[in-house]
Amino acid sequence: KVQDGESIDAWILRAPTDLQPVLHGLRERVLASAPGMVESVKWRHPYYSLNGEGLFSLMWFTAHVNLEVWYGAHLGGHDLLQGSGKHARHVKVHANAQPPWSAIEAILAAACERAAASGEA
Predict the structure, then answer these.
(1) Residue 17 backbone dihedrals phi, psi, to 5 degrees
(2) Is the pTM of this model over 0.90?
(3) Mean pLDDT of successive 10-residue segments in the chain (121 residues)?
(4) 78, 68 in Cβ contact below 8 A?
(5) What Å distances lie between residue 111 and 92, 116, 120, CA to CA?
(6) Exposure string (b/e) for 33-68, b if CB count within 10 Å is 16 or more?
(7) Does residue 117 come out as left (phi exceeding 0), alpha (psi in the -120 to 50 range) or beta?
């Protein structure tokens, strides 16, 4: 979790070394996924919103990173999305594995498009 007063850059540097490239890649792609994407800290995790509506967050664990997709349950057709529940899903990227960047970028784009179409962002 992001500590009080800690920057997201410092949070990434505290992650296991083999997860840092994944975190940098996810962060870069999330920020580029839509003009106006805002990065902040919410619930002690990097949080990404568009026009005030939350879309994504990042979490790291010992051996993987999760990209949380807040409305992922409504996207359909994306095999990488895991989880159950009413709205949120996540993409798990393991350490030392080649991230499926094209599929992740498609999920990011679909989430931004869904938010724009529904008036949430």
Answers:
(1) -50, -40
(2) yes
(3) 93 96 97 95 94 94 96 89 93 93 96 80 53
(4) no
(5) 17, 9, 11
(6) bbeebeeebeeebbbbbbeeebbbbbbbeeebbbbb
(7) alpha
Please check whether residue 38 is in contact with residue 50, taking contact to mean a CB–CB distance below 8 angstroms.
yes
CB of 101 closer than 8 Å to CB of 88: no
Residues β-bridged to residue 90: 68, 82
Q: Are 55 and 70 in contact (CB under 8 A)?
A: yes
The C-alpha atoms of residue 21 and residue 46 are separated, in whole angstroms, by 16
Tokens of 25: 């890649």
